[in-house]
Write a structure and sequence with these properties.
alpha+beta; 4-stranded mixed beta sheet; binds zinc ion
């Protein structure tokens, strides 16, 4: 039996059974449920005041002092972008950032985590910058404000000592959990609360900047300390996907394990270096599930995921995102952007990045395993229930072909309107099997 048959089967009644080749996840799509409109993950819209300001959002311009000290910002510079780092409080309003990197107020792995579990201390540079930040009266007021904000959210009271503020500053300036935040909350000219500035609403150039800033954050976090084994990058869009803010943001988190996904991919690749072609991209090509492609990346309707999914693969011969050329990185960005745009701003979705960590080869067995850089978008249109818990078989309302049939016409429309980058769509792709370099 070919892998293609085992991994993706259509039964006589129309039921689609899918198996994920790397995780073994089993998914069924029952027939006749794919034509329904997708549920919108937003409350009933209410009118926005002129200017479209969301007053209570800590990620919006005007609220920069509600966030911990900024790591970096991107500002427009002619047709391009300029990165500014290490700004003091007095410099925050001097430029208008389109994208910012800031520490997450509630990080997954804290400075204590790295110190107590791994003996890793903040760098000299971080400690010096924290002392300087605290010595500046505006800086101290900023740290005090964010410290109180955090403790209020944790339902704690009290006043911070200078030592508390220094510790907080060291934690934030040396953070291993960053957010990358675009400027807009709503689209320009929005008149109601539902007109959110999603990934797909960014321009092609803005999405490229957002994407490469996320890759830079990832590379920086790998360098931040020796105990970092993996940097997880993800974006949760709207509440069903786990987002606590409607303001678009991506998270970049350093952890001390590579996680089951990388382990699973590494195990499979150790047995068959061509696994991502044979079990995945070739299967998608054979079943007509290619959505779009450009010279360095391809997007397919995914299979074997708990939710209807789109997978975007880099076809670059290098696996680590920070080693891709700007053109190769932009190619990934363009497809991710187009797929978000095709899903629409009201569709709740998780964006999960997968890549080869730099230390993967240090184990006794693995040697240069070709784990491709890929991004999975999961449409959060259903809720897992008892059946899934009891059987570990997941029910999807949309088969991979249903996803394809929804996405292709949207891509055609968006391309005709010039809202996405140039790319080949559907049958235009003519991708040969074995396209992922090994
Ligand atoms: Zn906002």
């Amino acid at each position: 039996m070919s892998p293609s048959h085992e991994l993706l089967q259509r039964l006589p009644d129309g039921t689609v059974k899918q198996v994920n080749p790397f995780t073994g996840t089993q998914v069924w799509t029952m027939p006749g449920r794919g034509k329904r409109p997708l549920p919108a993950a937003l409350d009933e819209p209410t009118p926005l005041p002129p200017g479209g300001v969301a007053d209570s959002c800590a990620f919006c311009p005007g609220h920069h002092l509600d966030n911990p000290p900024e790591k970096a910002r991107l500002v427009r510079d002619g047709d391009g972008w300029r990165t500014l780092t290490g700004l003091d409080v007095s410099q925050l309003d001097a430029t208008e950032p389109d994208f910012r990197r800031i520490p997450n107020l509630f990080e997954i792995c804290s400075a204590d985590y790295w110190r107590l579990n791994h003996g890793v201390l903040p760098t000299q540079e971080v400690q010096e910058r924290a002392r300087e930040y605290l010595a500046d009266p505006d800086g101290r007021a900023h740290l005090d404000r964010v410290w109180r904000l955090k403790h209020r959210l944790q339902k704690e009271t009290g006043d911070p000592s200078a030592e508390d503020l220094l510790r907080a500053a060291v934690g934030w300036l040396g953070t291993t959990h960053e957010l990358v935040i675009p400027r807009r909350h709503h689209v320009d000219g929005a008149t109601d609360t539902a007109q959110l500035a999603s990934s797909g609403e960014l321009t092609v150039s803005e999405h490229r900047a957002y994407f490469s800033m996320s890759v830079q954050a990832m590379a920086d976090l790998y360098r931040s300390n020796a105990a970092v084994r993996y940097v997880s990058v993800f974006q949760n869009w709207l509440k069903p996907a786990g987002a606590s803010f409607e303001h678009l943001h991506r998270q970049v988190v350093a952890i001390d394990e590579v996680g089951a996904h990388v382990d699973g991919a590494a195990d499979t690749l150790a047995r068959n270096p061509n696994a991502f072609n044979e079990y995945l991209l070739d299967v998608a090509i054979e079943h007509g599930l290619v959505l779009a492609a450009n010279d360095h990346a391809v997007a397919i309707a995914g299979f074997g995921h708990r939710y209807p999914s789109i997978e975007i693969y880099s076809l670059a011969d290098r696996q680590e995102p920070w080693r891709l050329s700007p053109v190769q990185l932009d190619a990934m960005s363009d497809l991710v952007h187009a797929m978000h745009a095709a899903g629409g701003a009201r569709l709740s979705c998780n964006e999960e990045w997968h890549h080869r960590p730099p230390q993967l080869d240090e184990g006794p067995v693995e040697t240069d395993l070709p784990v491709p850089f890929r991004i999975v978008l999961k449409w959060r249109i259903s809720t897992l229930a008892g059946f899934e818990g009891a059987t570990k078989i997941y029910l999807n309302t949309l088969s991979p072909w249903d996803v394809r049939d929804r996405v292709l016409p949207e891509l055609e429309r968006l391309r005709a309107e010039g809202r996405i980058a140039g790319m080949r769509i559907g049958d235009e792709c003519r991708l040969p099997k074995g396209s992922i370099p090994v």
